[in-house]
Amino acid sequence: MKIAKQFLHPTLTIILSCIMFCSCRNHDSRLEYALQASENNRDELEKVLTHYSRDPKDSLKRQAALFLIKNMPEHFSYNGQYLQNFKQAVDTSVQDYLLKKVILMQPARYTRSRQQLQIEADIKHVKADYLIHNIEKAFQQWTTRPWLEGLSFNDFLEYLLPYRIGNETLDYWRDSLAPEQEKRIQEAIQYFDDRKYSVYNISQQISDHAQAYQTNVSSVVDIPFNTSECVFISRLQLLVYRMAGIPAATDHVPCWADMNGFHEWTVVIDPKKQDILHGQLEAKNAPKVFRRTYAVNKIPIPRDNEYVPPFFRDPFNRDVTSKYQATSNITVKTDIPRGSFPVYHAYLAIFNDSRLRIVDWSEIRHGEATFRNLGRGIIYFPVYFEEDNQKNFSYPFILHANGTTTSLRPDKTHLQTVKLTRKYPLHSNKVYHGNALVGANFRCTNDPTFKTSRLVHHVDKNPNMYPVIVLVDTTFECRYWLFDHTKMAELSEWVFKDNRGNIIRGKGIDPIGESARTENIFDGNALSYGRLSRQFIVDFGHPASISEMHYLPRNDANGIYPGNEYELFYFDRDGWQSLGCKIATGYEIQFDSVPAHAVYWLQDHTTGKEERIFTIQDGKQRFW
């Protein structure tokens, strides 16, 4: 191997010196396992090792080849007729190489299409020429990109060397960097000292350029994709980074602990700044953060046909939670009788999308399971499996922000009455709907010109997602009611009741002509909304006596609404226990005889999907 002196990094020199004086002939069981698994492809893999064994200067490349081969058995590509048909359809509408490559990874993300794909194991199909080409290209980057002079060999192996990023069809992607991108890189190397010696700074230039790929492309096939979605972006960026010689990986939260969904993003590996991690978790609670690696990581080894959840059958997820946030190690004891069932592994689950989803695992020793590097401020549910049936290992617990824990064991000797107002927390990103209403006035009159009118209510604070009930003097009868504001605002509901509590309806009038969908504010549906442009009038046709006026800002429908059916659950040793169903008559709902010190879940059987678990603190809901 010839290495230009001007790019022979100090780190690389030390590694080369060490390897040249150390024997590499020790028996390696993982290498032998890989070679045996390769079957008829063994000659190709041994050809790579032989290629890099001839010249002592290639010792480091041989170590790179060993890294790839020893970790290769679990890697594979998807292929088959379905994917070929999908590719033909994509080829008709997408020309850009990188964009097409990421789109072709989409079928593997969905069960229906994934079931129609065939697996091709790398260990049985990857040829010597392909591996050698990939290794040469990666080393060329490492020895010529000045920002990599401080990159360790281990980080090079994991974050720059790998020939794949997922289960994509293999090709010579390292040769596909657009000429314009390579030109910009060379300009940075030649002219910009702040970029050519900084992984982070050069990644910013490449990342900005990669945004050009995030265009709205309509697929002509039946697989959805969105170029602004996190998984799509992270894959695209990772490919661009590694093509450019920037060490990078994708990190992901498989499921949030305080809301539905997941998240994935790209992280660059900068020897000076460590990992560039800021800004990804924001205000959300992550029980675990994992990094996708090429090297295999420890996973539960099943015994006696033990069931292992799918996520933890994948050996390429490395726990990096502690890089992002404060974490704790927690030991959980079980009360499962010994010998009742051969249980070797316990798991932790969190509540996400109305399910308990597995996020961590531990071996069981002497009836205890120790879970490490857990995100804080989260309720965890310890579980295990009998065959594929999920069972409770112990009671759920809160891991508080300060690292202490509280067991959530329901106290059935202390029953309480609870009044509930929501089934899902009010997140800060929704406050702007209520903020837009601040300053609005509600007036009534019998004068159609509103030259004289009575002020009934002034919005002086953000009602957020909660309904506002205004009591009205029933002795004053008015035909017209006016919503009067200086700006546009949105309402989900505007309700009037007579002195018997009956809803009365009038005709909506838009005097300015700029309002939209105003019929929605009278339809009784909290999810629909109308846009009111400064003024909007309700005409009852005659003077009417109003006892109550209700208004509801544009809404997520996660509150309590009259006519909806709700069911309250608490979590006991055997799982969720129902406390019965009730039809709401107002904007809050009451349940009696509720065991104290438990975790609860309120379901709306009428509408909506968003629901979160909560505890009761000082008589109020505390969502988790």
By secondary-structure content and strand pairing, the structural class works out as: alpha+beta
Task: From the alpha carbons, calculate the radius of gyration and give it in angstroms.
Answer: 31 Å
Terminal CA distance reads 57 Å
Percent range of helical residues: 10-25%
- How many helices? The count is 16
Low-confidence stretches: 1-27
Please tell me about this protein's structure.
- With 624 residues, the chain is of the alpha+beta class.
- Among the domains are: 310-414, Sandwich (Immunoglobulin-like); 416-426 and 560-623, Immunoglobulin-like, CATH 2.60.40; 428-553.
- It contains 16 helices and 30 strands.
- The strands form 6 sheets. Strands 8, 9, 10, 11, 12, 13, 14 and 15 form an 8-stranded antiparallel β-sheet that branches.
- A hairpin with a 5-residue loop joins strand 14 and strand 15.
- Helix 3 packs parallel to helix 9.
- The longest helix has 17 residues, at 128-144.
- The radius of gyration is 31 Å and the shape is globular.
- The two termini are 57 Å apart.
- 32% of the residues are buried.
- Residues 1-27 have low confidence and may be disordered.
